[in-house]
Amino acid sequence: MTVRSLFLIACLALSAMAAPVRAQPGAAAEFRQIRAGEALQIRPDRAYLLLRFDTSLAKFQADILRVPDRTEMEAYEAAKRAAYVAAGAKAGPPESFVFYYQGRPNFFALSANKPLVSAGQVATVIAEVTPGDYVLYGEGFGGSLYECFCLGTVGFTAPAGQVTDLGTMIFGRASEPSAFPELAGEVDLGPSAAMDWRLFAVALRPPRTSDALPGGLDPAKVAPARLHAVSQFVEPNTVLINRLAAIPGVLAYDKGRVIDVATGTEAVVN
Amino acid sequence: MRSWCIWAGLALLSGGLAPAAAQARPSPTATDVPDLAVPGGHYGDARKYFLLHKPGVTVEQAEADLSFCWRFLARGVGRSSPGFIPWGKTDAPHPAPVVANSYGLIGMGIAAIIDGPIDRSLRQSRIFRCMVPRGYDRYRTSEDIWKMLNSSDAARSIHLQALIAAGPPPPTPIIRP
């Protein structure tokens, strides 16, 4: 990582620090990363996500999105309409109206900085979340989204009373070659991937039988995530855009199109 | 430092709404494509300033590809977690927070210098990441030609670039990788 990249990442963090504090009510009820030393109790009404990070490059965060249900979307739309009306002439065109929703959150970060267990270069985290359908949305630093997987990623279901094992998240500099075969096709892209803001290549290696589980975790409560392809989506509030590396049997790309390997068809564009 | 960062954040926004700026001007034709030769080899930074070309692509397909990728050009500051994302709906770019610039005119001068280059690298990173996997090659160009092909008129920019992408290979060096 160049000094310039570090400097700009520091700027990103400072910009986030300069943002007005917008407490997200109910965030702790929706998402809680289990702390090191904390006894893990699997509640029957909550879901759990297990993710390992390869930290050989840096301690990133994995950004996830819980797909909101109809009630949540209706509440969001109603609040946005009310805010738009309240803004009056200052609101501008509806499509460019900036609205910070204070309702139930659905966007969270699993952070390698706060692992439940660390072994060598691998940090293992577990988060207690609301059961539902999730999208691996992107990666970031310090609580800010740095790079969305807007050009292709995966989704999965997190059932209640179960630990869903997502496998291992692997990172590389997109401009350079990488020894990780999982990053093939997403690295060695040349200098355009290392401009003022460095592009990172990211892969998700599905869980392997050799992957260790945190001590005290009942293996019978752990199931590998059943991943499916998620097509492109637009996210303007990110520094860079990228895609998750292809995953055999799950996610592939064909001339930029996102292919759901299980069905052999193009994933529906969002 | 903080002021610099705020200005850098503001720079993220400076081109954010350009894709929505379609104008009612007639579509450009092949005669509107500028001369792509760069006398004296005075090329811009190869990471940012490039032309796109794909052998065998039609103007219509190139226009569809460019239009698809143009959707990703709107730029705000990186969102914070926890938060809410209206999945399946469009969210407007979030502006950088505005705070007093303690460096006054000097700070504004620095901001003016960095604004364009940083914003351009963010923009071009998006085009690079979206178009290259679609089979497009990049060719070197000058900053002046690039600016002619990337105005605030999104529809015109897309059509001009589609004409180039589907035409003969540009007379400048190809960029690999």
Keywords:
heterodimer, A: 270 residues, alpha+beta, 7-stranded mixed sheet, 14% helix, 33% strand, globular, disordered N terminus, B: 177 residues, 3-stranded antiparallel sheet
Short description:
The complex is a heterodimer of chains A (270) and B (177). Chain A is of the alpha+beta class.
Write a structural description.
- The complex is a heterodimer of chains A (270) and B (177).
- Chain A contains 3 helices and 17 strands.
- Chain A is an alpha+beta fold and 270 residues long.
- In chain A, the strands form 3 sheets. In chain A, strands 1, 2, 5, 6, 10, 11 and 12 form a 7-stranded mixed β-sheet that branches. In chain A, strands 3, 4, 7, 8, 9, 13 and 14 form a 7-stranded mixed β-sheet that branches.
- In chain A, strand 15 and strand 16 form a beta hairpin.
- Chain A starts with a helix and ends with a strand.
- The N terminus of chain A is likely disordered.
- With 177 residues, chain B is mainly alpha-helical.
- A 3-stranded antiparallel β-sheet of chain B has the order 1-2-3.
- The longest helix of chain B has 28 residues.
- Chain B is globular and about 50 Å long.
